[in-house]
Specification:
The chain contains 10 helices and 10 strands. With 295 residues, it is α/β, with parallel strands linked by helices. It folds into 2 domains: 34 residues; 240 residues, Alpha/Beta hydrolase fold, catalytic domain (Rossmann fold, 3-Layer(aba) Sandwich). The strands form 2 sheets. It has an 8-stranded mixed beta sheet, sandwiched between helices. About 2% of the residues have low confidence.
C-alpha cells in the first residue's frame, strides 16, 4: 500500500482563498462596463434622434413652383454626394447677382422648403436649397461636422456658378442657423439670416429635457451664440414670440451676442409656421437686403 500523498496539481496550486472572490469581482466589473457602454450608446442614439430627423422621401418637386430650376448633384470635400435645387432669379431682376443659400432645419428635406423658397424668390434673388448628408437624395451619414462640410460644398457650388462670395447670403432655418453661422466663419459671405434658431444644442436640450444632465453628456453642440461675436457681416435674426419649441429668449440672446450691423425681425406664428404671415416675413427679407445692398 502506497502511503505517499499525491502531489498537488497546478490547478490546485492556483486555487486559494481569494481566487473565487477575485473572479467574482472581475465578472462584476465586466457587467458594469457593459452596462456603462450600453448606456453611453443609448444616450448617443437618443441625442442623435433628437437633433436630426431626416426624411429620405421627396414629397414634392422643385417644378411645383412653376418656374425654372436645376436639380443639382455635387460633392462635399470628403466625397459625399449631395443633392439640391437651384432656382435662378428673373433675368431682369436688379438682384440677380445675389443668392440665398438655404441651410434648412432638422426635419424633412428640401421638398418641404418650397414655401420658403417662394418667399425668398419674391425678393428677386437666386435661391439654392440643398440637403445635408442623410437627407433626401443626399448620401452619407449624418453628423454635426458633416453638415458644416455640406454647407461649404454648397457655397463652393455657388462660387463655381459665378457668384462672388460677397453676393452669397446664408439663410439658416432652426438647426440650419447653427450651420449657417459656422459657414460664415469658414467662408466669406455677404450676410447671414438666422430664422427660429437656438443659442446651442445643449441649451435647448436642457430646456426640453430638464431631468437629464444634457450639458454634461451632449456631444452635438451647434453653438450659434458662441460664434456670433466672431462674425462681422450683416446679420438678421427672425423669430416668433409664439415659438413653442425654441423660445424667444434664444433669439434675444443671439442678437445680444452679435456685432453690428444687425437687425431683429419678429415673426408671427409658431416654430413650424413662421410663414403664417408671409408678407411680414417678406418685409423683413426686403429690409435686410436693402441693408446688405447699401454695404
Amino acid at each position: 500500500m502506497n502511503d505517499r500523498k499525491p502531489a498537488d496539481s497546478p490547478a490546485d496550486d492556483e486555487r486559494g482563498p481569494g481566487a473565487r472572490p477575485t473572479r467574482r469581482r472581475w465578472r462584476w466589473l465586466a457587467r458594469v462596463l457593459v452596462l456603462l457602454l450600453l448606456t453611453y450608446l443609448m444616450l448617443r442614439w437618443f441625442e442623435h434622434r433628437q437633433v436630426f430627423y431626416p426624411s429620405r422621401t421627396l414629397d414634392a418637386s422643385g417644378g411645383e413652383l412653376g418656374r425654372p430650376f436645376e436639380d443639382i448633384y455635387f460633392q462635399a470635400g470628403d466625397g459625399t454626394k449631395l443633392n439640391g435645387w437651384f432656382f435662378p432669379a428673373d433675368a431682369t431682376s436688379p438682384r440677380a447677382h445675389l443668392a440665398f443659400l438655404i441651410c434648412h432645419g432638422n426635419a424633412g428635406n428640401i421638398s418641404h422648403r418650397l414655401d420658403l423658397c417662394a418667399v425668398l424668390l419674391r425678393a428677386g434673388v437666386n435661391v439654392f436649397v440643398f440637403d445635408y448628408r442623410g437627407y433626401g437624395r443626399s448620401e452619407g451619414r449624418l453628423g454635426e461636422e458633416g453638415t458644416y462640410r455640406d454647407a461649404q460644398a454648397a457655397h463652393q457650388w455657388l462660387r463655381q456658378k459665378g457668384f462672388p462670395r460677397k453676393n452669397i447670403i446664408a439663410f439658416g432655418e432652426s438647426l440650419g442657423g447653427g450651420v449657417a453661422s459656422e459657414l460664415a466663419l469658414r467662408e466669406e459671405l455677404g450676410g447671414v439670416v438666422l430664422q427660429s434658431t437656438f443659442t446651442s444644442i445643449p441649451d435647448i436640450g436642457a430646456e426640453l429635457f430638464p431631468w437629464l444632465p444634457v450639458r454634461w453628456i451632449s456631444t452635438i453642440k451647434y453653438d450659434t451664440r458662441a460664434k456670433l461675436p466672431r462674425l462681422k457681416l450683416p446679420l438678421m435674426i427672425m423669430h416668433g414670440r409664439a415659438d413653442e419649441l425654441i423660445r424667444f429668449h434664444h433669439a434675444e440672446q443671439n442678437f445680444a451676442a452679435a456685432n453690428e450691423p444687425k437687425l431683429f425681425w419678429e415673426l408671427e406664428g409658431g416654430h413650424n409656421d413662421p410663414l403664417s404671415d408671409s408678407q411680414r416675413f417678406a418685409d423683413g427679407i426686403e429690409l435686410f437686403l436693402q441693408r446688405v445692398e447699401k454695404r
